[in-house]
From TrEMBL:
Residues 1-39, 103-161 are annotated as: Disordered. Residues 111-121, 146-158 have a biased composition (Basic and acidic residues). It catalyses: ATP + H2O = ADP + phosphate + H(+). The lineage of its organism: Eukaryota, Metazoa, Chordata, Craniata, Vertebrata. This is Superkiller viralicidic activity 2 (S. cerevisiae homolog)-like. The gene is SKIV2L. Keywords: ATP-binding, Helicase, Hydrolase, Nucleotide-binding. One of its GO terms (cellular component) is Ski complex. The keyword ATP-binding applies. GO terms for biological process: nuclear-transcribed mRNA catabolic process, 3'-5' exonucleolytic nonsense-mediated decay. Residues 1-16 have a biased composition (Polar residues). Residues 4-82 form the Ski2 N-terminal domain. It holds the Pfam family Ski2_N. One of its GO terms (molecular function) is hydrolase activity.
Length: 216
């Protein structure tokens, strides 16, 4: 009798009646979701008991201040304390501006005096020799330097040295008579050259078109 009239539209229970056949696959977006973990919804009697046992919580006075394991906690007494704002004195700002403006004419006058002194010191002459100015040499020197750079360009750095693998490696077994690993087939030329470079403690980059040859 308690579940009378309950359906997918108004029940959260897993034991509620299913919806109509038209909603058997996709359901309906207006259906209530199930309670998590298979929990059953409370009856009216359970709701009344819980409401009687519930206590009124004062969110202003009953707050916990010290967390577990701590000796001290938060202090909420100074919540309404106002932060003192710095006072701005306009007269002090105006006085600093006056001091700056008083300093500017002095610097301008000093610069003007320096310019007049320099103008007086310069002698009056009509020849470049008297002023100590020599004729500029023609711009042939930089062009010659440029030609030398073109004739002797700097050598470009080589990050890799290619190894000739077209000719067979005849002295492979003389240089490595007892290899650490032996294969049941004859190695290719690039594989032998790679082994020789590794034996010489050099880094090797193998650029082969097949992965089988590189894994050997």
């Amino acid at each position: 009798q308690e579940n009378m009239g309950l359906s997918a539209k108004n029940s959260l229970s897993l034991q509620r009646q299913p919806g109509p056949p038209s909603e058997s696959l996709r359901g309906s977006n207006t259906n209530y979701p199930f309670l998590p973990g298979g929990m059953e919804e409370l009856t009216l009697e359970q709701i009344k008991k819980n409401s009687e046992l519930e206590e009124e919580i004062d969110f202003e006075n009953d707050l916990l201040k010290v967390p577990p394991g701590f000796k001290a906690g938060m202090d909420f007494t100074n919540k309404d304390a106002k932060v003192a704002k710095p006072e701005v004195n306009l007269m002090s700002l105006l006085s600093t501006l006056d001091e700056i403006s008083n300093l500017q004419p002095d610097t301008e006058e000093k610069e003007g005096d320096k310019q007049t002194e320099e103008a007086v010191k310069l002698p009056r002459t009509n020849s470049l020799e008297d002023l100590g100015v020599k004729d500029a040499t023609p711009s042939s020197i930089p062009s010659e330097a440029g030609n030398k750079d073109k004739q002797n360009p700097e050598e470009k750095k080589k990050w890799a040295i290619p190894v000739d693998i077209t000719s067979p490696c005849q002295d492979f077994y003389k240089l490595i008579p007892n290899p650490a690993f032996k294969w049941p087939f004859e190695l290719d030329t690039f594989q032998k050259q790679a082994v020789l470079k590794l034996e010489a403690h050099e880094s090797v980059f193998v650029a082969a078109h097949t992965s089988a040859g590189k894994t050997v």
